[in-house]
Amino acid sequence: MSFRDWLVGTVVSTQSQTPTAKSIVLEVPGFGGSSAGQHIDVRLSAPDGYAAVRAYSLASTGPSSTIEITVDLIPDGEVSPYLVHELQEGDELELRGPLGRWFVWKPEVTAPVQLVAGGSGIVPLLAMVRAHAAAASTVQFKLLYSVRTPRDMFYASEFAALASPTFEVTYVYTRETPEGWPTPAGRVSRELLESATIPPSESPAVFVCGPTGFVESVASWLVELGHSAETVKTERFGGA
Amino acid sequence: MAVISRGFTGRPRESQPDLPPGQYLTKDFPVLSAGPTPAIDTADWSFVIKTETGKDASWNWEEFNALPKEDVTTDIHCVTRWSKLGTQWRGVSLDTLFENVESSYDYVMVHSYGGYTTNLPLDEILDGQAWIATEFEGEPLTPDHGGPARMLVPHLYFWKSAKWVRGITMQRDDNPGFWEQNGYHTNGDPWREERYW
Amino acid sequence: MTSHLDGNALAGPLSELFRDDMTIATGRCAHCGDVSVLAQALVYDAAPGWAVRCRACGEVLMVIVRTGERMMVDLRGVTALEVPA
Question: Which end is more exposed in chain B, N or C (fewer Cβ atoms within 10 Å of the end residue's Cβ)?
Answer without folding.
Answer: N
